[in-house]
Amino acid sequence: MPYVSLALKAQHNGLSVNKKNQLIRRFTEVLKDTLGKNPATTLVVIHENNEESANRGNTALLYQVTREKGRPTEDEKDTLRKEGIRILKEVLGHGDEPVDIQINEISTDNWGLGGESITEKRKKE
Description:
Layout: E1 3-8, H1 17-35, E2 43-48, E3 61-68, H2 74-92, E4 99-106, E5 112-113, E6 116-117, H3 118-124
């Protein structure tokens, strides 16, 4: 299950439901097209932070993708970064402000669903 987290600072707060839905749909599409992931098992979360709680210096946005360790290739990671920036520019009108991009890889032993690790779930399949 890929997980995308978008943290937006104050200047992007108050996004309309339409813009949030666009972000969720488009990031889900990128994960489907790039990694072949089922949209039903993709989670996109948008965090809206006020100025006091968003102490990230000049970074206006944080874009994180969490995946299984070793799953995304270097080319896929590059695509996720480039497509993420493109979506943010198109949907939010995001200009040249810095975007903090993190692609986190987690061992399936350390990622669980329903109280069981992904490793254990796969053994049962």
